[in-house]
Amino acid sequence: MPTADGGNAPGPILSPEVVTFSPMPTLRGGTLIFFLITLALCSWHLDSGRNANTISRAAMVAALVESGSLCIDPYQELTADKALVAGHYYSEKAPLPALIVWPFWSMANGLHWITPDDHGLLTDGLLQLGGFLCGSVPLALLILLLYRDLRHSPVPLPRGWIALLPFMGSFLFVYSGSFHGHLLAALFLVLAWRMRTRDAHVLATVLASAAILCEYSLFVFPLVWFLQDAFQRKWKALGAQVFGGLPGLLFLGFMNLMITGKPWTLPYADVAEHVDRSGGILGLGMPTLAGLWGLLFSSFRGLFTHAPVTIVCAIVALVAIRRNGLKWTALHPLVIPSLLLIAMISGHSMWWGGWAFGPRHLTAVAALLLLAALPKLPDKPWADGALVWLGVWGLVVSVSAKSTAWYSLPTTVLHPFREMILPYVLQRGFTVMQWPVAVGFSPIMGTFFFAIALLLALKYMRRTTPST
Q1: Could you give the number of structural domains in the chain?
Q2: Per the domain annotation, does 43 fall within a domain?
Q3: What's the whole-number average pLDDT of the chain?
Q4: CA–CA distance, 391 with 372 (Å, rounded to integer)
Q5: In sequence order, what DSSP letters do the residues of 363-392 get, joined into one string?
Q6: CB-count burial class (<10 Å; 0-12, 13-18, 19+) for 318
Q7: Average pLDDT over residues 257-264
Q8: Domain containing residue 368
Q9: 205 close to 432: Cβ distance less than 8 angstroms
Q10: What is the percent of the chain where pLDDT is above 70?
Q11: Is 90 part of a structural domain of the chain?
Q12: Sequential DSSP letters for 331-343
């Protein structure tokens, strides 16, 4: 729930049958080089900021490594994102991102690679490791999946550009390198969608469960898939979904039991600070026009303003809906659940997501829209031009944000680029959270090196991934 802070020839547009290959690509030759370049760009900046959201997850990791407990009492003063249950504090975040980082941090501690600071094992290194594993790697893999999907599509630009620019030219890039759960959840959901299109319903539901354990609100996707199969009387698929979803449900119940004492009660129900019940259950209420506008079109948190290539993708989706009709739309694995998620978030009492850049709770929608629509982009002059200009503009905005304020934008700033990000750039207020700074370079030199690395990467991709 929101908180306060490789393939066959293409089929019909957005057709689920397009994905007929394995969920994750095999890395060979040029594909491996492309992935490594992308991963380097996505992990150039690693977030060590003391943000309540990321600290909450890091506190859970540190507590597990230090004491084997989920209780974060030693760190609770560092974060406002926490649950208070029976006098003890816990992270109220979906647990899977922290649980993925836990064994890596435990191994590092066992090998004496960690130097504790004033907050024990909750160090900048832990935040950076979480950012790499849960932010940088998932985004690089999402870009890689699109790169592979474009192999048999007629594209006007080098396919490396078409894969890289829409993702890096969006708010998704700003969250790479940060210990949030959005990008990891999006990756799991994309893989679940790809498995569902292969009728691998058990694996699809397992992956969807993993997505939910990173971001609770994504439950709408497997729920809609279940209802779609029930409507079509696909009894075998329904049984497979129940079988695939049961382990995740039991695990979530176990985690809830360990924290709240009730398997059906999320820690989010016992948030200690910034409690807002005005929206109803867990802050949720009816969708609002203000929320819908803000999430989709506004300069404050709009999807289409913070991931501009999704404008073209939305046009492709609308054309597909018009062409294929109501039944196709209702049974498509992405359309209805994506719309429901947008509506649900718009009805939350804090739909804007606190201090954020873009609609961070729509990360999965943005990723799915890019991956589903871009391989089906029509080879038309308007589409070619829009892809170029929107991609470049998005890249300018997102790189400017990532190089300065990241997502640390107060909720009172309604026009983030104009009011904060551009002034930071003009004043050379570049972030210290980039690896060249860690080895002695100034922030401005680190940003300069990143710009050069990005340009060299685009030049390399132009030579090695030609358009078709």
Answers
A1: 1
A2: yes
A3: 90
A4: 17
A5: HHHHHHHHHHHGGG----HHHHHHHHHHHH
A6: exposed
A7: 91
A8: 16-50+127-464
A9: no
A10: 91
A11: no
A12: H-TTHHHHHHHHH
